Automatic annotation (TrEMBL):
It comes from Eiseniibacteriota bacterium. This is DNA polymerase III subunit gamma/tau.
Length: 153
């Protein structure tokens, strides 16, 4: 059954990115589902760079589809409440318009527990891990694997 958009979250994602040219936005080509999902992943990275907590909340949501002028994202009510905050919507709007080349609505739908969430790839989380290491002035520690751990005992 198709997911029903929540009324409070179907508001347009606005404003346009600061550097977006209106003519370029009108010429944006149609997107297939795979390309739209890849661009959404780029939006997540951009949001994470601007506001890590918001990026973390969005990364726990699931990209469902790209339909006309809307990105359909599944999330629970707590995550939707964070996304719906005015300042957070503005950050998302900027990233969406920069990545997709046009204004799009962000339609938040209930997250269906039966649909598994896609696991993040190493490429997607590496920038976040690197920032955390730098933030805490840390260093990478190699831990022994289970077989090596038992051999040294």
């Amino acid at each position: 059954a198709p997911a029903r958009p929540m009324a409070a979250s179907a508001a347009p994602v606005r404003p346009l990115a600061e550097n977006a040219a209106p003519a370029a936005l009108a010429e944006a080509p149609p997107l297939d589902a795979e390309r739209a999902e890849a661009l959404w992943s780029e939006v997540l990275v951009g949001v994470m760079n601007r506001k890590p907590l918001l990026g973390a909340f969005l990364s726990e949501s699931v990209f469902r589809s790209f339909e006309g002028d809307a990105l359909v994202i599944a999330m629970d009510d707590l995550h939707r409440a964070v996304v719906d905050e005015k300042d957070n919507r503005a950050i998302i709007a900027i990233e969406v318009s920069q990545r997709f080349g046009r204004d799009l609505r962000l339609s938040c739908v209930p997250q269906d527990a039966a649909v598994p969430r896609r696991a993040s790839t190493l490429e997607e989380v590496k920038p976040q891990v690197d920032r955390a290491i730098a933030w805490f002035d840390g260093e990478v520690i190699k831990r022994p694997t289970r077989g090596q751990e038992n051999a040294s005992s």
